């Protein structure tokens, strides 16, 4: 049996890959990601732990699989998800976390909080009018080769 990829079995990794490809096919040709809300969301379901699947340092965004959510929060309770509640798009409005090349970011774990940006405070959404809440990264684990030197 093959070694697990990012903690997933080979079958699960293939399924995640298929989901990522499906999500990426739905993006507009300009590369600007749109927000798709699945489920309602609640006040206590706005903090998640994730693992990066695909990252873009230019737009400061990443598509991530959700690794954990607060106790008592069902899949449908986590706001602004994709892939039937199993993935989210996170952004890094400050440019402090998703500023490395994609090959360095993929596979890293992090934490994000669902925030409502103030006009002019985010890189993650074009324009300054009608800003929507977004998953903002507030912590990202370092690369394994940097953490254990």
Describe this structure in words.
By secondary structure, the chain is of the alpha+beta class. It has a single domain (36-147), classed as Beta Barrel (OB fold (Dihydrolipoamide Acetyltransferase, E2P)). The chain is built from 3 helices and 6 strands, in the order H-E-E-E-E-H-E-E-H. The chain has helices at residues 10-25, 102-105, 144-147; strands at 47-56, 61-68, 81-82, 87-91, 109-115, 134-140. Strands 1-2-4-6-5 form a 5-stranded mixed beta barrel. Strand 1 (47-56) and strand 2 form a beta hairpin. The longest helix has 16 residues, at 10-25. It starts with 9 loop residues before the first helix and ends with a helix.
What would the keywords be for this entry?
149 residues, alpha+beta, OB fold (Dihydrolipoamide Acetyltransferase, E2P), 5-stranded mixed β-barrel, 6 strands, 26% strand
Please state the overall shape, judged from the principal axes of the Cα atoms. globular
| CATH topology assignment | OB fold (Dihydrolipoamide Acetyltransferase, E2P)
CATH top level? Answer: Mainly Beta
pLDDT < 50 runs, ≥5 residues: 30-42
Distance between the termini: 30 Å
Question: What class, by secondary structure content?
Answer: alpha+beta
The tally of beta strands, per DSSP, is: 6
Mean pLDDT: 76
Overall domain count: 1
> What is the percent of helical residues?
10-25%
Looking at how many chains there are and whether they match, the oligomeric state comes to: single chain
In CATH, the architecture is: Beta Barrel
Largest sheet: 5 strands, mixed, barrel
Strand share of the residues?
Answer: 25-35%
Widest sheet: strand order? Answer: 1-2-4-6-5
Would you list the SSEs in sequence order as H and E? HEEEEHEEH
How many helix segments?
3
Evaluate the radius of gyration: 15 Å
